[in-house]
Amino acid sequence: MIDSSLKDIAAALRDRKVSAVELATESLARIDAGNARINAFVTVDHDGALTAARAADARLAAGNGGPLTGIPLAHKDVFCTEGVLTTCGSKMLSNFVSPYDAHVVSLLKAAGTVMVGKANMDEFAMGSSNENSHFGPTRNPWNTDKVPGGSSGGSAAAVAARMVPIATGTDTGGSIRQPAALCGITGIKPTYGRVSRYGMIAYASSLDQGGAFGCSAEDCAVLLSAMAGHDPRDSTSLEQGPEDFARECTQVGAQPLAGLRIGLPKEFFAEGMSDDVRAAVEAAIAEYRKLGATTVEVSLPNARLAIPAYYVIAPAEASSNLSRFDGVRYGHRAAEYGDLNDMYCKSRAQGFGGEVKRRILVGTYVLSHGYYDAYYIKAQKLRRLIANDFATAFEQCDVIAGPVSPTVAFGIGEKSDDPVQMYLSDIYTIAVNLAGLPALSHPAGFGAGNLPVGLQLIGNYFGEARLLGTAHQFQLATDWHRQAPAGF
Ligand code: GLN
Asked: In 10 A of CB 310, how many CB atoms?
């Protein structure tokens, strides 16, 4: 049942054809059978899941269920979960049991979801391959020698392997869209500010945004609708009421996308993409034309500056955010040390991994007195130019389409010694975060080695329902999103 659509699972629960306890048991059994091969979970909460499932069954029996009541899900281990280990993929937090729930977690608890566990991730969400986790890499269920993408690789792999129908993630520079693409599932990062960052461990606060993974756009829409909404505890939370992001996921005639203008940024289609990715992306765009959409060339002339701008701004914010991990109140503390300063140094030296240290060093450097104007201020100016490019493009189109990742999933270890190569895998996703726009990735076929390819759709601010409705029409006409890896 876990591999059915959320709609079908919810109907079966409502009609009492399956119970929430049975669903949770099925999800846990699939995790127990497959997790050793893909390492998608840092924590599996058997007891907590069954307790939540019993409560969901009581609610369903009383006729008080909603669209997510009794649905098993995984939370990326960046979200604080009361009473459950919350590691953020780091040794620094490998002993941290959160005393409170993130806003997203409390909303989804209130909706009656059943959390089966915490998904593996790159340490502090820094990475594009999930190889930076203190708990070992997650592996791609389509080929366990390949990365699942990062940083929300555990969430994406768990959904791809049909261990859970949905999962949460966060996207600072691509960490929902890129693993969704490499694992052959759907994932959406909403407009910055839609989803509260309260209790979501901070990496780069002006870019971090929570979002949803599922097998289809419609499933993502249902999950995102329950995650989003104003939260006064996050000062950047948008003052917008709840919204039904699935409202455009309807079935309409033969040319359902007639009138939709899809912008194709010429910079995205210049060199950079591998041939197999290009073929799948172009075939998906042709499918969109068949559905009635028209395409228009647009330009994002400053998009090429997104990676350098991001890799100044994100480390700068990270260096500040991560200063709270000092070994004093919580997290890792060195067993032996001299004075207080030595305790800070040893605890941080032991608790953080190599990539996190690299970013703290870069961030501290670009914020330092002598270099602030040359790097940090310059990067902020580029950020504005990039956002302006999108604004100009959206005068000519309703959504923008392009690749998510320049290649299909790469090998574990292939890029881990070369940070610049690793950073370049974010080339098509990062500009969106700098501008704060919503974007999704949906399955669009297969490339080399029979590995999945994703198509990216970028919307204007608050355009989530339109994006999800557009992808939904594609998914009504195709079945890439129904393909699942063998053996799970
Ligand atoms: N790969 C990017 C980074 O390493 C993005 C990560 C993310 O979105 N959390 O920062």
From this structure: 26
